[in-house]
Amino acid sequence: GLERGAKNQFSTFGNFITTLNQKKEGIGNRNSPTRLVIPNISNVKMKDLPPICLDVRQKQRISIDTLPQELKAPVPPEPSLPARTKTVKDFQDDVEKAKSSGDWKAVHYFYSTTFDSFLDINAAFKKDTNSPFNTIEDSGIDAKFVNVVYDALLNTPQDVQKSVLKGVINGLLQEWKGPRTKDDLRAYCILLQNPQFSNTSTYVIYAHLLRQIAALTEADHHFLVHWSKKISQRRFKQLVDRLLQFISLRLFPAKPEEFPPMVKCAWWIPSATKVLSLFNAANSLISPPIISYTDFYNSTLDHIDLMEEYHNWQCYGNSHRFSFCQYPFIISIAAKKVIIQRDSEQQMISIARQSLVDKVSRRQKPDMNMLFLNVKVRRTHLVSDSLDELARKRADLKKKLKVTFVGEAGLDMGGLTKEWFLLLIRQIFHPDYGMFTYHKDSHCHWFSSFKCNNYSEFRLIGALMGLAVYNSITLDIRFPPCCYKKLLSPPVVPCNHNTLVGISDVTLDDLFQIMPELAHGLSELLSYEGNVEEDFYSTFQVFQEEFGVIKSYNLKPNGDKIPVTNQNRKEYVQLYVDFLLNKSIYKQFSAFYYGFHSVCASYALLLLRPEEVEILVCGSPELDMSALQRSTQYEGYQKTDLTIRYFWDVVLGFSLDLQKKLLHFATGSDRVPVGGMADLNFKISKSETSTNWLPVAHTCFNQLCLPPYKNKKELKQKLIIGISNAEGFGLE
């Protein structure tokens, strides 16, 4: 419960209730609606509420388990509800009369009686008071009436609004005996939507509401999750934003005196985060989701000690100690990138330290090269040299990467590494190499299903992609989203080597992202109204061409003898999709999976969604050169100098292809990192050389050296020549 503060500092809870009762009894004509002012009750004593029950699982995501629709737990009988006959139109008429006459008596009476208890809330907003509404499919809540009542609430006089809060407090103080009824759950669902909880002066009440909801049983949460997915998009977003604001302001209060001391209300944030996880679960149940997964990000968390959160999660994951990492949906991709980078750095330091200790223990002279993964390659044999180096130095994959191009004088301070990744990826994914198939319709690559004797190259490609994430390099890879879902199946390599990896639940939507034409055909099969067996004459058997030879595969035992019918066509489509995206490429993808995780093995991967892994690997392909202009730093130039103005006039007028070439020329990559253009730390320096020279770039430092060209035409000409011939490194 809440703790009492200094004497006489705040009005007591009893006085607050007495005041509300007096206001209620003395209702008369009211002035026009005024701003809500709520007495500060943050340091008053309330009855103890049940402690929050955190569902913390060691090294696993927090999620709402899907329960069977028919729950076996006994359902307590619903008490009879008071008779209420007020309709939406009646209420709206009362509000309009009150606005015109200034007499809010009828409206005040409605609010004070409607929110006086959980039973009264159900009596007012339940669609049919005689029906139980005990299923997850229908909450029984008259959503339109709830919305109208709440929309009008903030425009009523203070006494009306206070009466609602008094009723909420009465409901929260109710003595609970036995399990919650479905009417109780309905009341919680309705109270969560109260717009008054956006006001910080109501946060004490809001916190206790959240605590009670968080402490409900898993079966009760199951109902709330399914009922929440029926809320309109706008209202759903408001609920999520309100919870995020509550967490942010409790972490960094604008006026700390508004709230009890953090030590007295440590349960506020865990309670709110737990309730937020219910909305996240509801959002995930619908395709497409109600709101974007990024709408659950709380950017305030970017400013806390994330590594402490991460280590707490690792050390106390199976206890009741709270960590935001238990609820990764709330952590932004930028914050997750920081966690992964620092975790990688710590692993690099640990591996390098161990190499040094081993060297000294054998009484050998240590050298700096032993602290790095040194890759030496020839440009003319880039792929074969690279794969040989990675295979030979598998034990060093978790060291800091350094690349040397044989015959070139460039020193790798990051730029050569970027160049190596870019060129290597281009060659490996070329159709002639045969490891991946490019699908023109979807503009993405997918694993070749051709059988071979050795899948080690796929393992090395996985390791290459892992190295990119591990060394914070973005790659120009065009894998479909399904690939990253498989890469996290499971997110941590299982100890049992017989466990299948890279197998995910795939759907027709996943196939649409890779082979849209085939997926469309299967979709047509599902919606076909004629006789499927007679008209299509298909069986549970598929055919694939491999090196010019047509091979057949049964989708199930004796599939070649089982016809596809109207009754079993859904099974046929699901097995076909599973064959194409899982079974036919299992050996290729499992090798790729183990290669990736051999470098990126980290519990930090448990924090990531497939979409976030894709962003970490590929960055963003969308270039915002205006954002780059705003964040660019200058050395020897001012942003108002004529040469700089010429430069941005030219660059902003470039085609997308030329803008990508400029980005590649200056930074070594044509992809935008997770944090956007500002994260590039792009710098333009003045070059004191002759204006006959081309621009020079230091990709290690994302720096462009620009001579002071005399006019825009000359600058454009020299810049295009420079960025169009940007391969190879040298020293001045």
TrEMBL record:
Which InterPro entries does the record cross-reference, listed alphabetically? Answer: E3A/B/C-like, HECT_dom, Hect_E3_ubiquitin_ligase
Q: Which organism is it from?
A: Centropus unirufus
Q: Where is the HECT domain?
A: 393-732
* An example Gene Ontology molecular-function term: ligase activity
Catalytic site residues?
700 (glycyl thioester intermediate)
Q: Which UniProt keywords apply?
A: Ligase, Phosphoprotein, Transferase, Ubl conjugation pathway
Role according to the record: E3 ubiquitin-protein ligase which accepts ubiquitin from an E2 ubiquitin-conjugating enzyme in the form of a thioester and then directly transfers the ubiquitin to targeted substrates.
Q: In which pathway does it act?
A: Protein modification; protein ubiquitination
- What is the designated name of this protein? Probable E3 ubiquitin-protein ligase HECTD2
Xref: Pfam families: HECT
Write down the chemical reaction(s) this protein catalyses: S-ubiquitinyl-[E2 ubiquitin-conjugating enzyme]-L-cysteine + [acceptor protein]-L-lysine = [E2 ubiquitin-conjugating enzyme]-L-cysteine + N(6)-ubiquitinyl-[acceptor protein]-L-lysine
Show the stretches that span the lipid bilayer.
none
Kindly list the biological process annotations in GO that this record carries.
protein polyubiquitination
EC number(s) given by UniProt: 2.3.2.26
